[in-house]
Every structure is written in C-alpha cells, then in structure tokens.
Structures
1.
Amino acid sequence: MSSAAEGTYWSSVLLVLQAVLGAGILTIPYVFKSAGRTGGTLLLLTFGFAEILSLYVIILSTEASRATNYSGVVKYYLG
C-alpha cells in the first residue's frame, strides 16, 4: 500500500475555497430571494460566525492533541 501524498498549505486553502465558493454561488441568490435582504444578510452572518467558531474549535483541538492531521485529532478524542 502506498502512502498518501501530503498537500501544501496553499493547496489546502484552495481546496476549501473551491468547496465553499462552489456551494455558495449556487445557494446564496436563492437564500436572498427567499428570505429577503435583511433575512438573507442575517442568515449569512449567522452561518459565517458558526463557521469561524467551528474552525476555531478545530484549531484548539488540533493544538491540544498535538496531532498533525484531522484523523489524528479524531483518534485522540474518540479513540
């Protein structure tokens, strides 16, 4: 079995951006049409804050477990 190739920091950033922007481009106009300008803005800010909070928790968990990847963090906390 061959080992998996390791990505760089920038390849990871671009992969996440591609995933987020791809879904956002398709759904944001629909959200604003359905919820209106105020509701759409509120939803966008709420979910943006939730995303930032989630990333912060993942970063803290990674530092506390001293893992080098996400699967290492999951193994550390869930066994």
2.
Amino acid sequence: MPFLSKTKGAIVNTSSASGTTTFPLLLTAYGTVKGGLAHFTKYAAAHGFKHSGVRANAIAPGKNQIILDIFFHKTNKYF
C-alpha cells in the first residue's frame, strides 16, 4: 500500500455479472466470491483508500458464452 499511496496508483479488480445475479448451484461459490469482490471494491473506493489518493475500480463483464453456459442452454440441466 505505501507504493500505491506514493504514486497515486489504482486498484482494478475483475468482477463478474455473477456477483449480482443468481446462477445454478454449480456456480454458487463463484458468484459469492465475485459479489464480495464487488463490495470490497466499493468500500475501498468510498472509504478505504480515498484519503491516500488511491483509486479503486472493478470491471464486471457481462454474460459470456462459456462451455457451462452452452451446456445449460442445450440440456436445461441445472445441478
């Protein structure tokens, strides 16, 4: 943290749309972690690092066509 404060650096986290919506049981842990990361980033930006000049942002890509997604749509099977 001292280096970030000295250089007025930025923290950029990669979150996910999974952190704001519900998905099948198979992705529950993933969504929980991404939701926590999104809230940590909000806190860091608003309170945690605000006075040291460090910025905090999160990138949250939307839905991507991944193998699991294709499987769920073709089979309608949710674990």
3.
Amino acid sequence: MLILGLDPSLSSTGWGIVRCEGARISHVANGQIKTDAGDPMAARLAALAAGVAAVIAEHSPARAAAEARVRRCKGPIRR
C-alpha cells in the first residue's frame, strides 16, 4: 500500500510517498510544492492544490496523512 504524507505550508508544502508491506516501510518518493510569497493568496492555494493533485495522479496512494497545524501564539483560540 502506498501512503502520501503531507507537511502543509503556504510557502512550501513537503510531501513523501512510502510503501507499506506488512511491517516493512520503504521510501518511494518525496518533494516540495513551493509558492511565491508575492503571488495572491488564491493563486498560491491553487498552485498547492494542483501540486498535490499531480503527486496523487503520479503515485496513486491508497491513503494520505497530513501533519497537524501547530499553534504558536498565546491566548484563546477564537472561532
């Protein structure tokens, strides 16, 4: 089974593909999807979506996991 791991970031989203066969895990591929900080937010998000879609199309992972966002400020969370 192939698994896609994502380390999301607006400037550079990292990705990796691993193959799991029983208890054995092996590296298949990895890379980054970078965006330009000067581009509008919509263009940056579209570039990230297209990049992730391209990785999925190339490797066809059965599962995916994303690293959780880390909150690095003090104070209450406002929703």
